[in-house]
Amino acid sequence: MFAFRLPDLGEGTTEAEVIRWLVEPGATVKLDQPLAEVQTDKVMVEIPSPVAGRVVSIPVEAGTVVPVGTVLIEIDEQPQTSAMSSKDQLSALATQAQGSSVGLAYPMQDSTSTPGVDGGNLTRRLAAPAVRRMARESGLNLASVAGTGPAGRITADDVRRAAAPPHSDATNRPESHVSPITSDGEAEERIPLRGLRRVIAENMVRSASTIPQITSMIEVDASGLVALRESARDAAEAHGAKLTYLPFIVKALVQTLKLYPYVNAMLDDASNEIVLKRHYHIGIATATSDGLLIPVIRHADRLTV
After folding, report:
1. What residues contact 114, with CB distance under 8 A and at least 6 apart?
2. 275 Cβ contact list (under 8 Å, min separation 6)
3. Are 76 and 49 in contact (CB under 8 A)?
4. CA 227/CA 126 separation, integer angstroms
5. Which own/partner pairs from 103-112 qualify as long-range (CB within 8 Å, at least 24 positions apart)?
């Protein structure tokens, strides 16, 4: 019996949440077949099986947060089927997770395939697990979907466009999440708070309870900034970069924090001290197909525009 434990996914990860099981007890799994989607505070990955065999039990339910080393699934292993040891598998998985983009990102998938809808195959394309699930439910083969995201990543909109019938405006209509009013007057829907949404919610609550919320509106003449960006745009494009106003705003913000260090400070309740931060890490809210994320530009004061 092979007991597969939650591996160390790197970067100080001590726990992870099981978002969704891709197999069930009694199922036969192949070597490297995805077993589950798990979410840490940095990355979401599909965990592949290091052995082939039959699933005996799954002691951890979806939506459960468990520490590294917890037994996730037990597999009745078939002999002479594993191409590499379980130790090597875990090492490879950790390397894959550490190689992901900053923030909650999904590692690139390889070209292997897994059984898809109606007996077909879903080629392992660069796409988030939620997008792959959407494709399966729509009866689409991801190999036939053109990805418009970074590095050819397939987005949810790509799947909607591919699944929409001809002349359909389905891709242009906002997706409704409002539940219909039932006969007893109920008009609400309860959705488990898991994965990315759980992490976002926890961080927003922590931010609201520990950081004073202040909004200040000031009108300035930015014609000089506009001219500077225009003069530098061609040079940036020659290096393959799309120059926006954000890099200039980040640099200006860093200079402001240096002039007014109490804006970049925190309270240490335990020692009753004001802690002035000398590091300048700037977060920028970014809309992605997986939700609103905040990549952090660390040590922005040491970087050029």
Report:
1. 33, 34, 121, 122, 124
2. 265, 266, 267, 268
3. no
4. 38
5. 103/42, 103/293, 103/294, 103/295, 103/296, 104/39, 104/42, 104/43, 104/44, 104/196, 104/199, 104/290, 104/293, 105/43, 105/44, 106/43, 106/44, 106/45, 106/290, 107/43, 107/45, 108/151, 109/46, 112/32
- Angstrom CA distances, 305 to 216, 229, 295, stand at 25, 11, 16
Going from the C-alpha of 155 to that of each of 45, 100, 133, 255, the distances in angstroms are 16, 17, 12, 37
38 burial type by CB count under 10 A (0-12 exposed, 13-18 middle, 19+ buried):
buried
Question: What's the whole-model pTM score?
Answer: 0.43
Q: What does the pLDDT look like over 166-223, one tens digit per residue?
A: 654 444 444 444 445 455 556 788 877 777 778 778 888 888 887 777 888 899 999 9
Specify the amino acid at residue 103. G
- What contacts 244, CB < 8 A, 6 or more positions away? 229
How many other C-beta atoms can be found within 10 angstroms of the C-beta atom of residue 263? 13
* CA–CA separation, 45 and 291 (whole Å): 16
Residue 280 confidence class, pLDDT cut points 50, 70, 90: very high
Q: What is the Cα–Cα distance from 233 to 278, expressed in whole angstroms?
A: 31
Q: What is the pLDDT of residues 111-122, one digit of tens each?
A: 333 333 333 333
pLDDT (average), residues 272-301:
88
CB 33 within 8 A of CB 86: no
Q: Which two tokens stand for residue 202?
A: 């926890």
Report whether 25 contacts 76 (CB < 8 A): no
pLDDT at 259: 96
Closest CA to 155 of 291, 36, 21, 19: 291
